[in-house]
UniProtKB/TrEMBL annotation:
InterPro entries: 5peptide_repeat, Pentapeptide-BTB/POZ_domain
Protein name stated in the entry: Pentapeptide repeat-containing protein
Protein species of origin: Streptomyces musisoli
Top-level lineage group: Bacteria
Amino acid sequence: MVRRAMGSRSTDRGAVRGARRPEVRLPALEAWAGDGLEPDGDYDGLEFRGLDLAGQDGAGARFMDCALTGCVLDETGLGRARVLDSVLTGLRGVGTQLAESTFRDVELVDARLGGTQLHGAVLERVVVRGGKIDFLNLREARLTDVVFESCVLVEPDFAGARLERVEFTDCALTGADFGNATLKDVDLRGAAPLEITRGLDRLSGAVISTGQLLDLAPVLAAELGIRVE
């Protein structure tokens, strides 16, 4: 597998430093022929296509140079898993357990997920493109060089997370919680709508547009105790 990370696009993003995107080039893959995921399993150069992995336990597993396409992940246990240099397409699932997992050089495309547990996870050079993710739990997670692109995020929880070089591009971000989060070079200008319910005081290190500032003004005023009449 040959992979190169694309450089920062800070020159066309103003003062904010752009995220480094992954370029994942998968080798020839073999179809996975196993009966079920295994805790601490080692999966290398495999294709998982159209599989129902609901309720299975793959905690601590490692996926390297893999493609997961059209798989069902309802309540699948993947805590502390490592997903490296892989492409995940059309995943479906509710309550997928990915706490303290690692995603590095990964593309997540057209996912339909709900209540995904990624608290304490590490995401580095990850692109989330298309699809819809409801109630994404990223509490205390670390996101570096992550792009949310053309997707819908409903009530994502970034409380206590650290975000560095994170971009929201042509995506909807509603009901977001940034309480106690730390932001550095976070570009929110491409989020429409942009709705933040908690943590407006933590947006130092982020950039928003003038229009977004006006939209957030009532919530910001309320948080600062300003009465507008």
